[in-house]
Automatic annotation (TrEMBL):
It comes from the Bacteria. InterPro entries: TusA-like, TusA-like_sf. Gene3D superfamilies: TusA-like domain. Pfam families: TusA (PF01206). Residues 7-63 form the UPF0033 domain. It comes from Staphylococcus saccharolyticus. The lineage of its organism: Bacteria, Bacillati, Bacillota, Bacilli, Bacillales. This is Transcriptional regulator.
Amino acid sequence: MSIPINIEAQKKMLELKHGDELKIDFDCTQATESIPNWAAENGYPLTNYEQLDDASWTITVQKA
């Protein structure tokens, strides 16, 4: 069983200081919605959202 990206990201965000950013690279189409939704629910602004190719994306989330 794999750990969902959002759970891994939340653990990393707890380690960051206010204003730090977490870059998340992924290849799961479902995460293109779930990561931004998770970030919004937790008050973390997205500073970058980019599709790299047909099946990979990168999102940068800032700890607010």
